Amino acid sequence: MFVHQTVTARALAIALACQCAQVYAAEPARKADIDKKVDTDSIISTIGAGERTRPFPVGEKLAYFTNIKDGDRVKSPFRVAFAVTGMGVAPVAAGNIDNTGHHHILIDMPLPVDIKAPIPFDKPNEHTHQHYKHFGNGETETVLDLPPGKHTLRLLFADYRHVPYYVSSKEITVFVEKRGN
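Request: output the structure for the sequence above.
Response:
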């Protein structure tokens, strides 16, 4: 009986050692997957707004920038990516779909006071003093070209008529540096 227990204990020890060897052999592959980095600054989405149009369940509603933060120093032109939770993104052309809308960026502007008024549009070809950027095609990223200096940015989510839901981001400040610096 003692010999049988010793053989069983050895078999168990060998099986356990084999399992440990398999785990350690797989570890470098998992670490390599974790260490892979993707250059997300240069990726522009190819998914059309129509493919992203869908209502989201009720939850916390928040708009936010995904690649810039308060206090960032940038060189113009610079990429800005943004998202919303608790709402669906839809192009204006989709019409009135519950719990959907599109993004706006307010540049150097406070939140609108009149909660029933649509967000204004900048004058055509107004590049020097941009204040309202509309993303009525359902875009979730853009490239901003702002003059050097301090600028405030805030996202404001609105319905198909450009009337705000008052789902907004925190206002952030970015410092646009002169080109060549």
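Confidence is low (pLDDT under 50) at residues 1-7, 36-40.
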